[in-house]
Amino acid sequence: MNFEEALEVANEAVFVEVGRRLSKVEVAILKGSWDNLTYEEIASAANYSVAYVKRHAGPELWKLLAEALAEKVSKNNFRFALERKWHRHLNSTLTTVNPKEKFKLVINRTQKTAQYYVEDLGNEIKLNMVLIKSGSFLMGSPEDELERSDSESPQHLVNINQFCISKYPITQAQWKGVAALPQVNIELEADPSNFKGEERPVEQVSWYDAVEFCDRLSSHTKRQYRLPSEAEWEYVCRAGTTTPFHFGETITTDVANYDGTDDEEHKWSGSYGRGPKGIYRGETTVVGSFEVANAFGLYDMHGNVWEWCLDDWHDNYEGAPTDGSAWVDDNNNLSQKQGRAVLRGGSWINNPENCRSASRNNNNTRDNHNNNIGFRIVCAAGMSLHRESRQVGICP
Question: Which segments constitute the Sulfatase-modifying factor enzyme-like domain (predicted)?
């Protein structure tokens, strides 16, 4: 039995047990252990922390395999356990159980209220801005969070001042309304998006385009609009939670738009943790179409489109501000800024690990126009506030 055969047995056994494939780090641990590497060597080769591999991911993998194979499994004996499974020729029956029936997340829905104001953009186009009250939160991910990155460290306490943020990512209708306003610094294309739809998020807009959108709206309304700081974005995404997603420990494609299928070539899993696999829609969805908000009343914080933040990219949080402000370097002239900015939230084309509350992305320069990148906006002071009731969903 070779490693590829062993991996096939492990993947199918786990798929039957919890409805997902092994994650990247689990495959790395399995392969490293197969090659008799130590946890330290596995962590170094896979670019994970030793503590995470040794104390969390490794033990969790052996526990998961023990449940899937119905026998004791450890780093020392897993090869024999997989070989026994192989030689009993159970592969043909492993996929007979419908994983959706085996493992199904339940969304608990409750009613809450949010305060908001409406910006009238003309031509019956409205922009809902939700009030976010002041508070503090722990920014970044803990070292034992599955599929985390070192760029999410160190965790640090951040104090946030009250502000308002758009309820959804900016839509194509809202974009067209503001793009028709007088130019401030640069020209804006009226209809840049690849996936057309008035209520779909605008995409294929650069960071500079998003800044110009804010400048035009500010000039028109006499209120100061801008992109959110990275700290503000994570604060509103978490909405008081400390789990990988504001839904809870995992996520499903029933409540968010991301790639829930496996990528065998790159060993990417369409599931997160013990959550199920899902579907791949291959395009954006209408904002708010899943009809489940987080506790702050915001929609589509996980998936659909990546969202530009105001901050310059930094490789980690060493020296990051703790007052919720954007972390920017010398040049404060936004229209002339160079380098990379921060993207948050994941998108329709990404796996669930990229959609975590703490996940950060710098794979695109400020002038990129990709069909999986959009944005939402913030305002420090709004108009008269209204109240609305909305459903909040939590995955137990």
Answer: 128-378
The identity of residue 35, as a single letter, is D
Nearest to 8 by CA among 262, 251, 352: 262
**What are the extents of the domains in the chain?**
3-102, 108-394
Entry field: residues in the chain:
396
Buried residues in 347-366 as b, exposed as e (16+ CB within 10 A): bbbbbbbbbbbbbbbeebeb
Structural tokens at position 12: 């199918």
Asked if residue 51 lies in contact with residue 40, where contact means CB atoms within 8 angstroms, the answer is: no
Q: What is the pLDDT of residues 173-212, one digit of tens each?
A: 999 999 999 999 999 999 999 999 999 999 999 999 999 9
Residue 383's φ and ψ, nearest 5 degrees, are -100, -160
Specify the pTM: 0.72
CA within 13 Å, CB half, 106: 5
CA angle 360, 362, 363 (to 5 degrees): 120
Which residues, including other chains, have CB under 8 Å from residue 373's CB and lie 6 or more apart? 203, 204, 205, 305, 306, 307, 308, 343, 347, 364
- Written as six digits, the tokens of 153 are 């460290």
DSSP, collapsed to helix, strand or coil, labels residue 112 as strand
Overall CATH class of domain 108-394:
alpha beta
**R_g (Cα) of the chain, nearest Å:** 22
Ramachandran angles phi, psi of 225, nearest 5°: -100, 150
Mean pLDDT of the chain: 86
Which structure tokens are listed for 306? 């990546």
pLDDT digits (tens, 9 = 90+) for 230-263: 999 999 999 999 999 999 999 999 999 999 998 7
